[in-house]
Amino acid sequence: MALPRYADRTAAGLSELYDAVKTMAVRFDFKPGQRINEVELARQLNVSRTPLREVLNQLMVEGFVTRAVNRGFIGRPLDAKQIHSLYEFRSVLECGIVRAACERATDDQLDELQAAVEVSRDVPEDADAVRLLALDEYFHMSLARLTGNEEFVRSLESVNARIHFVRWIDMQQGRRSHTQAEHLRIVHALRARDDALLQELVSHHIGRRLDQITDVIRTGFSTIYMRDQLEDQA
């Protein structure tokens, strides 16, 4: 079967290539600290190296890959302190988001959000973690859109992508039951226009201690390397 080709330098072609490589980076298909073989990656994606390098440079700026002298592009680290910093940033960002949403969201918009949360509660707790995480991200992005501020939306999309893998592991470890109940409490606080309670709920909902993140990352490393072993056996 022919592979997709992204070699044309049109905006659409580069956008598709960017999405493909970013997905690989988000999933840690590029192992932490591993040199990215541009020749092999270009062959895999059926693309020339010039647009590929352009995309890798953009992903480096965004924090999805890194670069080392004499090694080229390498997989980003899966580092507990860095992930903790991203969670800390996300917590501050989402506290600002719910403050703005509290002021600006209409009752009709909150009706729609509550209905979506209540429907998502019917999804079984043992459902695929990818689906559970998608529901969780949908809720938080919905909060950001209630602000009417695209900078909030873009910033949250960026930080979500960088911690997506860790949150996926977190969902596999049983966060689901807590998550949905907390979402509903956040919606109720929005309805009450209770900013003080919202700040407390969001900080608790998002916050993670460094030791908790370290445990999740330990599982993440096992997942990355066991995944390769299973693919080799397939």
Task: Describe what you observe in this structure.
With 234 residues, this protein is mainly alpha-helical. It has two domains: 11-75, Orthogonal Bundle (Arc Repressor Mutant, subunit A), CATH 1.10.10.10; 80-209, Up-down Bundle (Four Helix Bundle (Hemerythrin (Met), subunit A)), CATH 1.20.120. The chain has ten helices and two strands. A hairpin with a 3-residue loop joins strand 1 (65-68) and strand 2. Helix 4 (80-104) runs antiparallel to helix 9 and helix 8 packs antiparallel against helix 9 (195-206). The chain is globular, with a radius of gyration of 19 Å. The mean pLDDT is 88.
CATH superfamily of the largest domain: GntR ligand-binding domain-like
Radius of gyration: 19 Å
Oligomer: single chain
How many H/I helical runs?
10
At the third CATH level, what is the topology name of the largest domain? Four Helix Bundle (Hemerythrin (Met), subunit A)
Global mean pLDDT = 88
Number of domains: 2
